[in-house]
Amino acid sequence: MKLLLKLALPFEDPVLIFTMVLLIILISTIILKRVKIPGLIGMIIAGVIVGPNGFGIMQRDASMILFGTVGILYIMFLAGLEMDMIGFKKTKIRSITYGALTFLVPIIIGTLTFVYLFDYDYKAAILLGCMFASHTLLAYPIISKLGLAKNEAVTVTIGGTIITDTAVLIVLAIIVGSLEGNVSFNYWLIMAAKLVAFVAVVLFVFPIIAKAIFKQIESEKGAQFIFVLAMVFAASFLAELAGVEAILGAFLAGLALNQLIPHTSALMNRLEFVGNNIFVPFFLISVGMLVDISVLFEGWEALLTVVVVTILAIATKWVAAFVTQKLYGYTVTQRNLIFGLSTARAAATLAVILVGYELGIVQEFALNMTVVLILATSLVSSFITEKAGKALAIFESRRKPDLSNKPDRILVPIANPATIEHLIDLAIILKNPDYDEPIYPLAVVIDNEHAEEEIYKKNKMLQEAITHASATDNDVQLVSKIDLNISSGILRAIKELMITEVVLGWNAKITARDRIFGSVLDNLLESTEQMILVCKITHPLNTTRRIIVIVPLNADLERGFLRWLKAVKTLSVQLGTKILFRGRKRTLNKIRQAITESKPVVEAEFEPLTDFKEVEDMKTKLAKDDMIVVISARKGTISYNSTMDYVPRLLSRNYKENSFIIIYPEQNPMLNTTNGYVGMGYGSENNK
């Protein structure tokens, strides 16, 4: 009897409900992938089927509402988190223009339609016009999976989404305020003050708190994930206190944490995985549960109204996308992408109509019509976005590749367990994501009577490296070598694996043996042509505030110029930081030209530096979270000068609180003319 009660429809047992939802997510993914229908549509249709207006298998109870709310907040949070902030700053006028168009065109046409075609009064018509204007980035997960989050069309659409949804919520507040008699100047002044305070707290206070917390819990990956979720929901709650919808708070939380969560990090991977596989599907299923198909069969007038409203709602978004395309010269594919992303209605639309329904401004038919509109626009949005997104992804993949943008095969020699995570994180950030190349952690064991014991110890360290890297969905191929010395082991691995870059840990200790025979780094520089990065990371990479790049004269004439510049730019984009280039004016002009002619786009400043010795005087101008990158050179190369020999030691002595990277660019084979030169005195077998 107890079992029959649990299996009675609709399901009420929370364990059974959760199991049912997970099965829906799994089955929908498998079936729809085979028939090539976007997964978003499958989740919504599944919600219609199992919901109270379908077969009544499940109710849209408090648990579904809770998870659904988390899902839409997650979508908005990820949209802010993955947004190209540098691109947004450069296209903010375009975002504002599109936001104005995608708000004004739908709300004006929608209001006139409901007043003159369906005989609604002005307050109800304006409220229903808001239903036309608002939209939700329901199809954003499709764009994210296709790797188009930083495309300008996507950036402009996301910016426009926040503008139009904020405008809709303000119009809603005005209508509600007028109905409740709150039309005084003081009321609007207080509301504006609350909104400004909310935005200021999220965008300026939250990043300060997050940076401090990330430094404290750097090694606690689970704690980082929980902290980020807490920030998202705290921002959403503050938005509600300020009198706007929680989705605005979630989006602003994404913007606030944008520069603190690198897109290739383990934390980002966890956030996307949990959101896209649990919370977002719950939201889509809960939206489907709202749909009542019977509204379409209440008579031809009801059917005509729903059809006209749906067509106009979709058409007005197309008009806004079309005008934006013509104004800024976007391609047809980009226009379709903007249109697809901005067509879906969900959270904001539903919030507006529910408020109107509760206040008696609109009747139950309008609520049901809105739910059908949500289903129809969600289907159109998914199809259009996936089709346009795939076309754009194919087009971008066929562009002429940058010669510096070739596959990265990065070797990370490891000897110190304390540096493993930082070195692997840096290698993952620098790796070109367009190529499926693994990271190669390397352990070199000197061939002596203790070799077997050392192999066991080194293999344990390499397992730590693969465990850390696997959390970022990056492939790691462990490499072990037994050789006469560390240098020859690394050199052999470079040749055998066709390595393009070597990431070494810094060690300031110089032994008598190093002075006589040369350090590991000295030997590598003499015997290789690959780019070598010597790193000392003193704080979490994601808390880096600025990157200061010291560039020698003639650095632009070296073979590896574009490759190291690409590495620095990639580091800036992933960490969300500005770059300050310092060097001779002629070299800076060449760097400025190279930056503007290639992707990714970065925010860079340029400041003259007459001599490398001036690096010692920079200390007062740097913050603890600034990273120093020095572009050095091998002896005998065109950009080498003797002052470079002292810079690493200077950084280690005077900049103990700052992270720094010394880059030795890729060189032409056999370019070094100096044989057996005295070691520079940095880098050693310990790789600390």
Task: Explain what this protein looks like in three dimensions.
Helix 19 (451-470) links the parallel strand 2 and strand 3 (479-483). The longest helix has 34 residues, at 364-397. A ten-stranded mixed sheet has the order 3-2-1-4-5-10-9-6-7-8, sandwiched between helices. Helix content is 59%, strand content 8%. It starts with a helix and ends in a 24-residue tail after the last strand. It contains 25 helices and ten strands. It is an alpha/beta fold. Residues 511-518 and 670-688 have low confidence and may be disordered. It has helices spanning 2-7, 14-34, 39-50, 62-81, 85-90, 92-116, 122-133, 140-145, 152-179, 185-216, 221-241, 246-257, 266-290, 300-328, 332-343, 347-358, 364-397, 420-430, 451-470, 486-497, 512-517, 520-527, 561-575, 585-597, 647-654; strands spanning 410-413, 439-446, 479-483, 501-505, 531-536, 546-550, 578-583, 604-608, 626-631, 659-664. Helix 4 (62-81) runs parallel beside helix 12.
SSE blueprint:
Blueprint: H1 2-7, H2 14-34, H3 39-50, H4 62-81, H5 85-90, H6 92-116, H7 122-133, H8 140-145, H9 152-179, H10 185-216, H11 221-241, H12 246-257, H13 266-290, H14 300-328, H15 332-343, H16 347-358, H17 364-397, E1 410-413, H18 420-430, E2 439-446, H19 451-470, E3 479-483, H20 486-497, E4 501-505, H21 512-517, H22 520-527, E5 531-536, E6 546-550, H23 561-575, E7 578-583, H24 585-597, E8 604-608, E9 626-631, H25 647-654, E10 659-664
Parallel strand pairs: 1-2, 1-4, 2-3, 4-5, 6-7, 6-9, 7-8, 9-10
Antiparallel strand pairs: 5-10
